[in-house]
Model the fold of this input.
Amino acid sequence: MKGKIAVVGTGNVGMAYVYSMVNSGVASEIVLIDINEASAEANARDIADGNIFYPRKVNIYAGQYSDITDAELVCITAGAVQKPGESRMELLSRNRSIMTSIANSIMKTAFDGIILIAANPVDVMTSLFAEVSNYDKTKIIGSGTNLDSARFRQNISNYLNVNPKYIHGMIIGEHGDSSVPLYSVTTVGPKPILDYIIENPNYDLAGLTHCYEDARDAAYKIIEGKGSTYFGIGASLKEITKAVLDDQKVILPLTVYNDNVYDIDNIYIPLPALIGEDGVEEVIKLNLTPDEFDKLKISANLLASKLK
Ligand code: NAD
Done:
């Protein structure tokens, strides 16, 4: 396995991702690209200094787009961040030109691996990358609601006092204010959570709703406290990268192209997807309740409106 990846944007998110990667031994070669070349150089040196302590030696260096040709995955984290109280969608005007220039730079190379996008608003940025690049749609992935879903599962875990690994569930739709929690497919071990709650007087739907709302609004709270979020998304990006590099065939809620799988616009939107070395190998069709489907449609319409 080669294990070569590149990161475009070596700010807080880019470097939290890289730090998570090197501490998990996921990659053997990492190229750092940033318009601030001095910062990319310094970050490469800083990470390389820890090589003796990582499970796998990593060749990390500041580079150019010409260095990504043989990479298996390029992760794009370059972009402006939300100010306190600002929504992800409000970043669109500032990040549109950055994503356009990065897509053009990548397309000038012979890179043919997987594109993983984290810059916000991530679903619109993923669509924008696809539009500008005309690249294979199944090789373009946005970080989607993988982090939102992790927050949701952890909140439920705390609420019910059950190990989060045994809470299965997802948030889909926009990585943002119009996201959709899928209570209908959320389970505690093998048991549907709605049954679990009905049968247990200690829990109720209001408590479950709070688990979702706290997950949806988590970034606002973190940004208010420390200016930006990066460790959680860094770990989430690492897991997605591992799924691709190790051909894991895992099912994650990521920003993927809805190619007539759901009866919504054919746009990039977070949906459950089978992820392996070829990128998006299948978009998983769920039997949503009418309420969940209506909410997904509202979210899809909102994303589509931002692309015009
Ligand atoms: P940051 O300001 O710390 O870093 C951004 C980096 O991008 C800087 O190093 C900057 O020099 C670089 N950059 C800007 N324009 C560039 C270009 N054209 N080419 C290459 N590099 C360029 O910001 P951050 O905290 O790392 O956040 C980055 C993005 O990630 C933001 O859009 C933020 O909203 C987003 N984000 C997404 C999630 C998610 O769940 N998807 C979570 C947190 C943050």
About this structure: Residues 8-14, 33-36, 39, 77-82, 91, 95, 98, 101-102, 118-120, 122, 143, 147, 175, 228-230, 233 surround nicotinamide-adenine-dinucleotide (CB under 6 Å). Residues 205-226 form the longest helix (22 residues).
